[in-house]
Design a protein that fits this description.
The complex is a heterodimer of chains A (237) and B (285). Chain A is of the alpha/beta class and 237 residues long. In chain A, 49% of the residues lie in helices and 11% in strands. Chain A contains 8 helices and 5 strands, in the order E-H-E-H-H-E-H-H-E-H-H-E-H. In chain B, strands 2-3-1-4-5 form a 5-stranded parallel β-sheet, with helices on both faces. Chains A and B meet through helix 2, helix 3 and helix 5 of A and helix 3, helix 4 and helix 6 of B.
Amino acid sequence: MPLFLPQRFNGRLIVVEGIDGSGKSTQLSLLSQWLRLRGYAVAFSEWNSSPLVQKTTRRGKKKEMFTPTTFSLIHATDFADRLERYILPLLKAGAVVCADRYAYTAFARDVVRGVDPAWVRNLYRFAVQPNLAFYFKVPLEVSLGRILGGRNALKYYEAGMDVGFSRNIEESFRIFQGRILVEYEAMIEEMGFHVIDATKSIEAQQREMRRIVVKEIGRTRPPEVLGMEAPIGRAIA
Amino acid sequence: MAGLSPKLVGSNGRPGRANGSHAPVSLARGINRTPLAFYRTPLPGVAVGELQGKLIVIEGPDAVGRSSQVARLRPWLEELGHAVLDTGMARSALAGKGIRQAKEGNTLGPVTMTLYYLTDFADRLENEIIPALRAGFVVLTDRYIFSIMARAIARGEDRAWMERTAGFALAPHKVFYLRAEVKDLLSRVVVGKGAFDYWESGMDLGFGRDMYDSFVRYQTRLIKVFDRLAEPYGFEVIDASRSADEVFEDLKQRISRTFESSLAPVRRPARATSRRPRAARQTAG
């Protein structure tokens, strides 16, 4: 049985996956900007960003109310809302939808939290099969260096503190990310990820992504895919 | 289709003892079944063997009178000496408020609604129902996964998806399905509530502009779905077109029978053993 619903819409769905600090968001933002300049109508959707569910997620996190099951379900609810209200209609309209994280994130994270792998895969069966799924492969130490190097403090659930790996938040984060990495690596073949070597330069990774996108969509915009006026002057070919 | 029928699993993930090939929960032995079992996917960290309480579900369509029956049953059970937890949909600390807010807007899609309610259910299952069962309470729940499933299926969602997704639920000791025809529901809506509700009328389905028409079509469909779930999930069907007093008497009798072996085993030993098995089979369908 296929994991997701077949993508039969006019648009294209491109998703990026990888552990925190793999650089996937940077790459996706570069890619979507490039697609816009080429005249594509591009939309963007980020994991855990539905306004409908936001308050519940915030309450649960603040009061540390989540169990692995409710954590998994609220993220699926969030995803369902974005899919039903945003991603699906846009795909139907012919947009290129770029998603920063997709159901695979749940398959990796929730399973590390102790949720049954078959259950969580079934949970997301209402999702649409992406046209392209990029996986940003990075050694744990490299990503940890990027995250722990500076920036903001780690958060409770982000660090997997709820799983009880360690009472030290940084240590917990290391173990949690390491386990997620293992889950991702195991999924590469099953999910048909396009693996991007995320230790390479930003430019080299972006070149690789664009090459794969051109291969998938074609050199010129297919007629069913929605276009738009180039935002600045003419589209760059 | 065999794969779709509910099966029971213990915390070890293997089929539970109450499991037959196509078997609904074995209700004849049901109430004394130890341990309770999950339908499909055990919740992480729950040892079902520790759950000593009783799980009783009151199900049925909107406006059928579930809540008022629960309100009557609770003091009656307490009078008999049972500690009671009553719970119901959208009452979780985690998601109750969010669901109520989401329903006030006009953007709640069917899958989102299903999963939001399931989040609410999971929160109550893990944080209220299971702890209460562990402590030996009688848990009386106004709706269970079946309402969530019925609403989703009535909106076109896949039943197999729904059953697997809700498969972390515990199979209750008893599910009483309060069944009535739409015309009975209508009079209760008009007399009791005085107005039609947007969601209870299934207005999101676009059946019509009129809440009355939509209510009739949606609730008819919902009752059909409940009817289809009755057999495989071992519902005891209660004729809820009768007066609230009659329904209450019926429920009390059935619940008493359920408890008699554990509460007063000495009083009616002969009858308890010669009792006809499978109460659900006699009344369902």
